[in-house]
Specification:
71% of the residues lie in helices and 3% in strands. It is mainly α. It has one domain (15-392): Na+/H+ antiporter like fold, CATH 1.20.1530. Strands 1-2 form a two-stranded antiparallel sheet. The longest helix is centred in the first third of the chain and has 36 residues, at 2-37. The radius of gyration is 21 Å and the shape is globular.
Length: 401
Amino acid sequence: MATKQKTLTRRLTKFFHAESTGGVLMILTAIIALIIANASTSEWYYGFVKTPISFGFGEMVASEPLKQWVKDILMVFFFLLVGMELKREMLEGFLSDKKQILLPLLAAVGGMFVPAGVFLLVNQGIPAHSPGWAIPSATDIAFALCILMLAGKHIPPALKIFLLAIAIFDDLGAILIIAFFYSGALAITPLLGALLVVGLMFALNKLRVMAISIYLILGVMLWFMLYHGGIHTTIGGVLVGMAIPLRDPDDDSNSPLNTCMHFLHPWVSFLILPIFAFTAAGINLSGLSIAALTEPLVMGVALGLFIGKQIGIFGTTWGLVKLGFATLPEGTNWRQIYGVSIVAGIGFTMSLFIGMLAFDDALMQEQMKLGVIVGSLMATALGWIVLRHSTKEPVSGKGKR
């Protein structure tokens, strides 16, 4: 048991450091994109992200600009990683203990519904903006963990796990939102083919087929089916991740899922997500004024991330603890929980991703990006300050403070 606990702790430590380093790289890439989009190179930048690319076979040909392919192809690998992380944590990680699930699960739910409510409240009476309700509901785990790691060495491990659990449930909620609210018109024939492919993948899992390549080949087939069927292709990444076997029953040391994660994680953290940040974060600030910040779409996203997340996560956690349904994570205090609720408002990757799905209009996309950047920056600054000074308060695992 002790050995298993040490293995889990070592794995989580490596994960946190990889995520935080990836978060720093994403920040730098986003800054570079903003600089290029506002310099004499702006024409090159916008021409680059709109470069048309086509590929396919037979009648199944897909043609989209580069920016769209980053969202529809590269981000599939990000969601593949998310799917595998979800499966691993639910089967043998900290989410396998039902007692540990309640608090972060309900905190994540509160952290999704309240920001959506704030957005809709600010944008009430503007039907064209309503598709953006889910934009501030998302948390960027890489950025959030980056701020948590930079806040100090004395942050208790349980607080990091609490934030990670919230982000995992947040990702799961985002996956469901994308599947049900941000997919296109459905085409029955390709979707029936997609169902067959998914069924085959999980049948292979039950038959104990351990070859990762087979699941990835079926994943490519699933991508084409979903693309032409009207369901967003990132959902395919999650399904493939959930289908890959965790353990080989004939060889406990063989884990196809962990092997795939180990290979994929650096590519996602240090290449795919920075590329997404570069193509998505470019926004021309030349015409920016104070009035632009007061636009309902900008304010709805920014306040949803900055205020809504705080109210949703901290309010839910406080209520559950005070009512006796849960206790604070071991060694944490209320100031640290509040700090986590703030940094959860850093919604960069997922917020931008959902925003690009929500709006086709160029002006709305620019306003959405501005709202995400402003809200995430405010959450970053205040969250770092609160967490940096949070260890001055004596810790308590009972939630009595």
